[in-house]
Amino acid sequence: MPVTKLEVTTAMKARTLSRHFRESLKSLGRNGWMTFASVSAVTVTLLLVGVFVLIMMNLNKVADDLENDVEIKSFVSLEADEATVTEIETAIKSMSGVETVNFSTKEDELSDLVLDFGDEFSLFEQSNPLLDVFYVKATEPQQTKTVAKEILALEGIQEVKYGEGKIEKLFSFLNTGRNVGLVLILALLFTAMFLISNTIRITIVARRHEIEIMKLVGATNWFVRIPFILEGMWLGLLGSILPIGLIIALYYNVTEFLQPKLSGELIQLLDFAPFIYQVSALILLMGVFIGVWGSFMSIRKFLRV
Amino acid sequence: MIQMKNVYKKYPNGIVALNGMNVEIKQGEFVYIVGPSGAGKSTFIKMMYREESPTSGQMLVNGVDLAKIKRKNIPLLRRQIGVVFQDFKLLPRLNVYENVAFALEVIEEKPEAIRKRVLEVLDLVGLKHKARMFPRELSGGEQQRISVARSIVNTPKVVIADEPTGNLDPETSWDIMNLFERINASGTTILMATHNREIVNTMRHRVIAIEGGLIARDEAGGDYGYEG
Questions:
Q1: B80-102 pLDDT per residue, tens
Q2: What is the pLDDT of residue A7?
Q3: Pairing of strands B158-162, B189-193
Q4: Which helix (H) or strand (E) holds B205?
Q5: Positive or negative CA dihedral for B11, B16, B18, B20?
Q6: Residue B186, Cβ neighbours under 10 Å: how many?
Q7: Which residues of A touch B (CB under 8 A)?
Q8: Is the confidence at residue A12, as pLDDT, over 80?
Q9: Which of B209, A90, B24, A110 is nearest to B218 (CA)?
Q10: Average pLDDT in the A120-135 region?
Q11: CB of A6 closer than 8 Å to CB of A152
Q12: Contact flag B51-A213 (C-beta cutoff 8 Å)
């Protein structure tokens, strides 16, 4: 008897792919409450993740705002003439790690003072006791101390002020806060993955018999797998709709309420757009990824028939 | 068609199910596989569609050596043979039509061709009018007829049946047997493991009796030969 060679072809026809799409949608409906259970699990966890991301991103923004507000106030000594002031400006600008340099004459300083504290100070216009000042911002808030030292070393600089001692404490506090937030988000993401893929696994275990039958009738692994994976994708998509809607509504109301109160303040919330759309996209991608990944992993061991 | 040369099967738990079996079955034959439980009947049948693989020996089905077939090519083998199971193995979430169509969808047949062929075989087994029903809504006999329809829908050269009447009452069993007779009459090889003495003794065909992993008896038009 001649020995025939069997070779499986991996290319899939377009109509088969559209069959898989139809099949996955049909299966969602026929699975009834199993679909409902999975979608609910996805919904609850993604909502948690979403709210948490909103909070953490805004806390991070607050921390950034605080850090970026740190300025070095560099006082120019009285003896310095105009040429020295120009030299100082060029020197500061050429330093590494300097982002912005703003010069403010002693007259500017006084009018700021009058603006802040009242007309009594206009008396000093007769003989201004203030000094010319350079306001310097470091590119990285953490570099403030080094930059301040460099500026102080320049000729014609009398004094620098940047809240020494206090900002170091603030920075380390904010850093701890950021790290704790990051760990919490990662832990929550991990829990969400675990929870959702477990729910999907239960629905697939309940259908392992079907997988076996499909294999015995001559289906290839991919033929069995793709509808399940697509079904996982739908579960993720459906499960992310409600969280996205709720988060958009929630953040819209929060920004509407708080933004006017915070206008002109140092601390600002992240703007509604595009931030909320980025978070929505993140939630959607997570839902789809977890659905697909959960199905893929769960079906694996039942395909060995 | 089917050829076994010194086929030997030892399970991981040490049980030897087939102990050097030699057999040849030609195209168009109708063969009963009989024998006591645990004699190797099931292993013999399961090897035909590669649910089990031989430990050693050569086993050709349709010219393919099943001892050497790669795992990824197993689906291709299964598409060339039809299998009917004792417990029907219908997909519970698919209706009758979809269950039968599934065997054609896996070979990526054209939709029009699928439709035509599925209705044809449903007509053959007399269940065209129940195409939209789900397996749970059908009787055991009807479910087995659907299973037979699925096994022949892609016109295989051989149909393997593992105690197809095991879960059915006597009358329904005869319906199923009449179906197999008709399929065999069209030139399809039928290989059927059974415990049904009455059937074997009435519809006479070649009988292969397996005992202790070996062929104890092989006669054309033989009888069941066991008590009970």
A1: 999 999 999 999 989 999 999 99
A2: 67
A3: parallel
A4: none
A5: positive
A6: 10
A7: 1-4, 6-8, 12-13, 15-16, 19, 27, 30-31, 207, 210, 212-221, 223, 305
A8: no
A9: B209
A10: 83
A11: no
A12: no
Task: Say yes or no for a CB contact (<8 Å) between B63 and A216.
Answer: no
In 3-state terms, what secondary structure has residue A285? helix
pLDDT by residue (tens digit) across B54-85? 999 999 988 888 888 998 899 999 999 999 99
Both structure tokens of A301: 């061991």
Strand, coil or helix: what is A274?
helix
Instruction: Label residue B99 exposed, middle or buried (CB < 10 Å: 0-12, 13-18, 19+).
Output: buried
DSSP state of A142: G
As for the ipTM of the complex, it is 0.90
Round to the nearest angstrom and report the end-to-end CA distance of chain B: 32
Partners of B76 on chain A (C-beta within 8 Å) are: 6-8, 218
| DSSP code, position A127 | S
Distance CA A99, CA A138 (A): 5
What gap in Å lies between CA B177 and CA B172, rounded to an integer? 9
Give Cβ neighbours of residue B117 (< 8 Å, ≥ 6 apart).
Answer: B104, B109, B153, B154
Give the per-residue pLDDT at A149.
87
**Rounded Cα gap, residues A133 and A125, in angstroms:** 17
Q: What is the pTM of this model?
A: 0.76
Separation between Cα atoms, residue A285 and residue A236, nearest integer Å: 8
* Residue A199 pLDDT: 79
Q: What is the pLDDT of residue A11?
A: 67
Q: Which two tokens stand for residue A281?
A: 């996209």
Opening angle at CA B188, ends B105 and A218, nearest 5: 25
State residue A75 phi and psi, 5-degree precision: -90, 130
Report the gap between the CA of A259 and the closest CA in chain B (Å). Answer: 53
Which of A4-8, A53-57, A140-144, A149-153 is the least confident region? A4-8
CB contact under 8 A, B107 and A218: yes
Mean pLDDT for A247-269 is 88
Residue B33 in contact with residue B208, Cβ under 8 Å?
A: yes
Does the bond joining A274 to the residue before it have cis omega, within 30 degrees of 0? yes
Measured distance CA(B139)–CA(B149) in Å, rounded: 15
Q: Which residue has the tokens 């991301």?
A: A53
Q: Which residues in chain A belong to E strands, given as ranges?
A: 72-76, 98-104, 133-138, 157-161
Alpha carbons B224 and A172: distance in angstroms, whole number: 88
Residues of B in contact with A16 (CB under 8 A): 105, 108
In whole angstroms, give the CA distance from residue B207 to residue B209: 6
Distances in whole angstroms, Cα of residue A6 to Cα of each of A91, A115, A281: 78, 89, 45
Of B63, B77, B85, the CB nearest to A2: B63
- Which pLDDT score is estimated for B58? 92
Q: Which chain B residue shows the shortest CA-CA distance from A11?
A: B108
| Subunit contact B51:A216, Cβ cutoff 8 A | yes
Q: Distances from the Cα of B14 to the Cαs of A156, B55, B56, in angstroms? A: 95, 12, 15
CA distance A172 to A46: 31
